[in-house]
Amino acid sequence: MTRIKRDSIAYLVIAGFCVVMLSWAIPTYTPAYPGYGASPALVSNVAVGVILFMACLSLVRIGLALYLNKPIPDSESKFPEDINDEGGFTQIGRVKLDHLARIMIPCILLVIAIEYVSYIFTAFIFLMIFQFAIGSRNWLTSISVSVILTAVLYIVMRYGFGVPIPGPQLF
Amino acid sequence: MEMIIAGLLDSISPASLMFVFVGVAIGVLIGAIPGINGPMAIALFIPVTYYMSPLTAIGFLVGLNKGAFFGGAVSAVLLRTPGTPEAAATSWDGYPLTLQGKGEKALRMALYSSVAGDFISTVVLIVIAAPLAAVALFMGPAEIFALISLALTVIAGIGTNSICRGLMAAGLGILVGLIGTEPVTALPRLTFDVYQLGSGLSLIPVAIGLLAFSEILLQLERFTGKGGVEHSTKFSTKREDRMLSLKEFFANTKTLLRGSLIGIGVGAMPGLGAPVASFMSYDQAQKRSNHKEEFGKGRLEGIGASESANSAVVGASLIPLFVLGIPGNLAVAMLMGAFMIHGMQPGPLMFKENAQLMYGIYGSLLLASLFLLVIGRFGLRFFCKAVDIPAMILYPIVVFTCIMGAYLGKSSMFDVGVMLTFGFIGYFMRKFDYSYVAFLIGFILAPEWERALQQVVIISEHDTFMFFQRPVAMILMALTLFVISRTFWNGIKDDRKKQKEAAAEAGQHKGD
Predict the structure, then answer these.
(1) A85 pLDDT above the threshold of 80
(2) How close, in Å, is residue B471 to chain A by CA atoms?
(3) Which tens digits make up the pLDDT trace of B330-343?
(4) B306-320 pLDDT, tens per residue?
(5) What whole-number distance in Å separates Cα of residue B462 and Cα of residue B466?
(6) Distance from CA of A170 to the nearest CA of B (A)
(7) Which residues partner with B180 through β-bridges?
(8) Which chain A residue's Cα is nearest to B430?
(9) A:B CB pairs within 8 Å
(10) What is the chain A residue with the closest CA to B175?
């Protein structure tokens, strides 16, 4: 998929999101106007309105360029994976869903499991899985990093900051 | 006068000295690691400051930021991998010197230039912030509302190639910033009946997710399944290749002064940021040099120009924060969050309400410059080793620190979920070229913007012409419209230029 196509789909999704926000979410989850000051929905409506306007404007711009058969700039006709963007803040490129899943799933499982199992056990397992997911195959290093990191953060949180450790306690 | 002395004495208390020192040291170390920058370091370490006094906390974070700015030069010079955009210009002359075995000399030049730029801008901040703040005190809610509107439009252009996408990101940031309790009715708004959202989303999990976690997600793309990248840097053992003589340093005095002034000018204006300063300064240094042809091949002047300018931005960017309560860049936005967490609202009133603390912060800023010099001078070799930390050890540490950092604020796993969500959103924002900088600044400024608007409406009793009765507010609103229309006009011109280039290229292909 070329970048211009991908951007168009993104603008459509954003415009859809704005319509849902304006027609359902903001009216349902905003308190009623109390009779003084500005309406509690005013700023959120303006913010979503700006997003919707910009998304539509971008779509119109793309649509006009295609309709008038204007040449598409190189940076937009390319495939995202071919764009070597080193601008610093953004890194335009292909979304790697398999990579995202490999990193995000262990993190989500950690958040769920830590409340039911214990911090120490969950953190150790998470770190082992995470290191495996990013390509570490040296078991000695993986175990050392997992044990040391789990222990250091446990000591810092419990004895340094005195914050409650998440999940049931083993010690 | 008493306040000034008391504040400065506070800044040299053992706890304050220690935390500024530790902040600078950690900042340099973290900045030296490719891919980790100042704002990210601040986001990761704000939870740690919950347990400090306001002065030690701000001193620690300011030290961290200053250290990270110089630390960014370490990876730029030794690896040509600038962790931050502002260090890119440093790598142009720094890396060629490293290839010649003169990496240590290049780093010394970067260090002394950084300290010079940073010190000059801190002095300028101290001299002009309080008088400007006194003027800013005359600003009412209408002016504040207009000023935040202007800041949001200026900032929307940072970190993206499209103003439309920048404004969309800023709008989304504002929307997310509005989640929580509505200020007039004190009832929940946009919480979707999730009780944890009743007090709104905390800055820390949102910032850690957007800045640190999403960056790690991107960086890990290079490593998953490949076992990481190992590298090592060779240093010459000859004294003249390692050390920087006084003659060599003072030969660049003009460049350093020019760079510092450029950095101060750019830093004082919201929205431009350190990369603009370092590129402008490098460009000026090259244009005015008698040895233009040596730039990019390992000229110390190039390093000095870039580093003095980008470090001068650090102090100067605090001017809009202290004077107007507006964060000019991401690092300052994070510092603004830290101020708020410690119960202070950045802006001109700080000089009235927390005068002693302000002078304490000034003292810490100056001390941070001194510590940067000492730490950089004696720890240079050690920091050079930081760039060689294996990725397989570094990334688990950073990711787990992100998770536990998000947890620390409220001791809530819900915040870890928020951090992961915004990490995920940040990954897509970067891939699709939406400015997460504009998002974050919109998120931080939204409550203040809404408060100012509510005050305007209540004070004026729904008089829509109130802005026309306040000349400063009217000028600021006119400037906002001017910035928007000029940016759009520039965008249209750019589009036409690109289309012409594309048409010319297509014609050439046909001809072939």
Answers:
(1) no
(2) 22
(3) 788 888 888 888 88
(4) 899 988 988 888 888
(5) 9
(6) 18
(7) B189
(8) A90
(9) 223
(10) A44
